[in-house]
Amino acid sequence: MQFNFQKSVGWLLLLLGLLVIFYGIYSSYNIFIGKNEAPMTIMKVGEKNNENANKVSDNLVNPTQDKNKKSPATLELPKELTDNLSSEQMAQLKNLDLGGGLEQIMGGGGMEQLLGDSLNQILPMEAMAKTFNLGAWSIFMGILFWGGGAIASLGIKLLKNDDKKS
After folding, report:
1. Which residue has the higher pLDDT, 102 or 113?
2. Model pTM?
3. DSSP-assigned states of every residue in the chain
4. Where are the domains of the chain?
5. What is the pLDDT of residue 2?
């Protein structure tokens, strides 16, 4: 029995290519069922410094307003409610400090903050990062499958060439 180097290399490449493909399938399966984390992380969501983020967003929304001065929030009541009030009670209502709650909602970037919070509840940044990372992993696995298929194809070609020579 004669040792055939070409046939041995052909079988080795075929098995190596199949091993690469099956390893990719196995590791992808474990990642997508949640048993393992994706080994490659392209997009990370870190802890934000909320104080600095709020300063930046406040300056973008209203750059000319002095942040130390509070603009008074006005509350207008229907005339039917104010007709029975004394002038002292009216003065108290006009000087009523709403604690900035109405101001935060109606002005000063409150609406943008509210929309941002709502969007974050619908589609959290962590979910977007995880989806992006799984997509990147899928692309990497596609390249790995293509490479494994190319290696196995070389092995098959060597095996076919060996059969023609025999």
Report:
1. 113
2. 0.53
3. ----HHHHHHHHHHHHHHHHHHHHHHHHHHHHTTSS--S--S-------HHHHHHHHHHHH-TTS-TTSPPPPP-PPPHHHHTTS-HHHHHHHHT---TTHHHHHHSTTHHHHHHHHHHHHHS-HHHHHHHHHHHHHHHHHHHHHHHHHHHHHHHHHHHHHHHHH-
4. 5-41+74-165
5. 61
